[in-house]
Every structure is written in structure tokens, then in C-alpha cells.
Automatic annotation (TrEMBL):
InterPro entries in alphabetical order: Endoribo_LPSP/chorism_mut-like, RutC-like_sf
Species in which this protein is naturally found: Phytoactinopolyspora alkaliphila
Domain of life per record: Bacteria
PANTHER family found in the cross-reference section: ENDORIBONUCLEASE L-PSP_CHORISMATE MUTASE-LIKE DOMAIN-CONTAINING PROTEIN, ENDORIBONUCLEASE-RELATED
Protein name as catalogued: RidA family protein
Record domain Endoribonuclease L-PSP/chorismate mutase-like: where: 20-142
Pfam family, one: YjgF_endoribonc
Organism placement in taxonomy: Bacteria, Bacillati, Actinomycetota, Actinomycetes, Jiangellales
Entry's transmembrane regions: none
Amino acid sequence: MMSTAEDRLAEALAVAPAPVGAKALIDPVVVADGVAYVSGQVAFVGAEGPLLGKVGAGVTVERAAEEAGKAVANGLYRLIEAVGSLDAVERVLKLTVFVNAVDDLIEQPEVANGASRVLLEVLGDRGRHARSAVGVASLPLGVPVEVELVVKVRS
């Protein structure tokens, strides 16, 4: 028996992120005209705080790729909150991965592969996507990776 996308998501990351507080100044997901825009997600897991640091200075590319996978899994959980089920996903359109990196790091695509792998594992062909992987000087809280998603959803 084939598992559902939610089952595969739970295998990738068993713990959904905490709800966004009512005082937040953003919506974690905005759906407009059949497209869901998932706000930037980091790799919070349960009560654990996120990993902190720069890729290339204390955080390896491999570890950052794992964090990217957790961050995109958090984004998928947010998407479930907004649209009810991953069955509503027609296709991931775009993944953007921001990498908090030392100046000379060039492995942003390898970090982003961690997020791409999770999308493909969870959603199959619906998880295929366009992607940007961008090195930045810093990210919120000092995390090494943040991801954003743009997803086509069924009305």
C-alpha cells in the first residue's frame, strides 16, 4: 500500500511547527488565485531551538542541507494548515533557499538540494520545481537556512 503525502512528510519530519501566534504581523501562507505563497520557514523542530551559525564557518554544507529539508518540511506543514491537505497541491512552482554563508561559499545549490529532496520524496512529481539558491550575509535568529515556497493548489 502506497503511503500518502502526509505520511511521507511525517517520515521526513515527524513534528509539525508550533502555530503562528495571533500577534504575528504576517500570515504563514497566503492563497490567491490558486497559488499558495508560503512565508520564509526555518528548521524549528518541536521544542528544540533552531541550529544557529553560518555555512562554511561552523555549519557544514551537509548539515545545512539537512536543515533546508527540515525547513521545507515545516513549510509543507504550514501549507496543510492553509489548504487542508497535501492532496490539494497540484505542483510546487518555485523554491527559494537562502543560505547564511561565509563570503566565499559557492555550495548554495548543494544546501538547497536538501529541500528539493524532501519535496520530491513527499510529493513525487508534484514536488518538481524551479529553484533559486542564494547566499546571504545573515538570516533571522542567526539560522543557516531559510526557505520559501510558491505552490499551485486546487481550489
